Amino acid sequence: MTVRTLIVDDSPAMTAMIRRKLAAEPGIEVIGTAADAHEARAQIKALDPDVVTLDIEMPGINGLDFLERLMRLRPTPVVMLSTLTSQGAEASIAALELGAFDCFDKARLNRPLGSTSAPSLADLLRAAARSRPHAPAARAAAPARPTSAYAPHRDRMIAIGASTGGVEALIALLMEFPANCPPTVIVQHMPESFTPSFAARLHRLCQPTVEEARPGAVLEVGKIYLAPGGGRHLEIGGTDARRYCRLVEDAKVNGHRPSVDRLFHSVAKIAGANAVGAILAGMGNDGAAGLKAMRATGSITFGQDEATSVVYGMPAVAYQIGAVAEQLPLRRIAPRLLAECRA
After folding, report:
1. Which SS3 state, helix, strand or coil, does residue 212 take?
2. Which end of the chain has fewer beta carbons closer than 10 Å to its terminal beta carbon, N or C?
């Protein structure tokens, strides 16, 4: 399969660099370029690309505004080109929420192939071409934070893993959690500079308190702990009666740090049958073995189904190896997680 790609960037130098990088990649064909939203709209209509690379910062209609219109009117796989600054992270999180397939750090275009284990731009384009683009779901305004009639079991906890396609999935899932949800730990693969913005975004949108996990933070009802991106794995430590967050400096697992597998294995060890696990959309196989370990210790485990996954990679592998007790569409996962943790 040849991935027909349209480059949208207002910088001729950046456009030339992207074109040069992709020319060396098998199965990637650059079929056109555009310098602004007007040109991009015309090129998409005329060329019908498989994937679009889109610069977040453009003159006139910026990349985010253009992405929102594109995903609403003509859903197309889009890989955003961004920077890993705090401002770039905010924009990237917004792009992922709007339905972009993934974000790629512009700085990595200058690095030689194979210099990092992270997916290359060409890898993302190939995966995006196989994905399921869709218009983002409409969302209500940020809710108030009252304690609902839901009563969590005092011993239960939830563990969730996600990667590509997980930002929008996590937002949709966690917006259904009540303010007094069971303690919840999450690994979402993303760069270190992105996770503070993502945690803050989730906190604004959701009823529970959402924060980046800190070493020694005790797991409490009504709190959601997001693994910081970058150099450490998130695990839980302590005992089943008193669990806390651990941030561990160690080698990457399945090419990731933090790794979903490392989190799930620790949950299996500490919480066992008092934990409920879910694996959401993502590339690769991270989390499958850990979720299987959770299920072996008595945890109830769920996987996002293929029809609602932007990338049906991680949940597919987990299902194939018997780690998933039940596959569900995304909209049904939050109610089941909460039901399994109800007092």
Report:
1. strand
2. N
- How far, in Å, CA of 162 to CA of 155, rounded? 24
Q: What is the CATH number of the domain that holds 278?
A: 3.40.50.180
- Cα gap 96→194, rounded to integer Å: 11
- The pTM (predicted TM-score) of the whole model is 0.91
- Do 101 and 166 fall into the same domain? no
* Residues in contact with 66: Cβ distance below 8 Å, sequence separation at least 6, in sequence order: 8, 37, 40, 41, 54, 58
Where does the pLDDT of residue 56 fall: very low under 50, low under 70, confident under 90, or very high at 90 and above? confident
Q: Are residues 231 and 104 in the same domain?
A: no
Residue 143's pLDDT is 52
Which residues are annotated as catalytic? Answer: 163, 189, 286
Look at residue 34 and give its three-state secondary structure. Answer: strand
**Element spanning 127, H or E:** helix 121-129
Of 28-42, 70-84, 98-112, 124-138, give the lowest mean pLDDT range: 124-138
Let me know if residue 137 belongs to a domain: no
What token pair was written down for 19? 């074109």
Same domain, 162 and 122: no
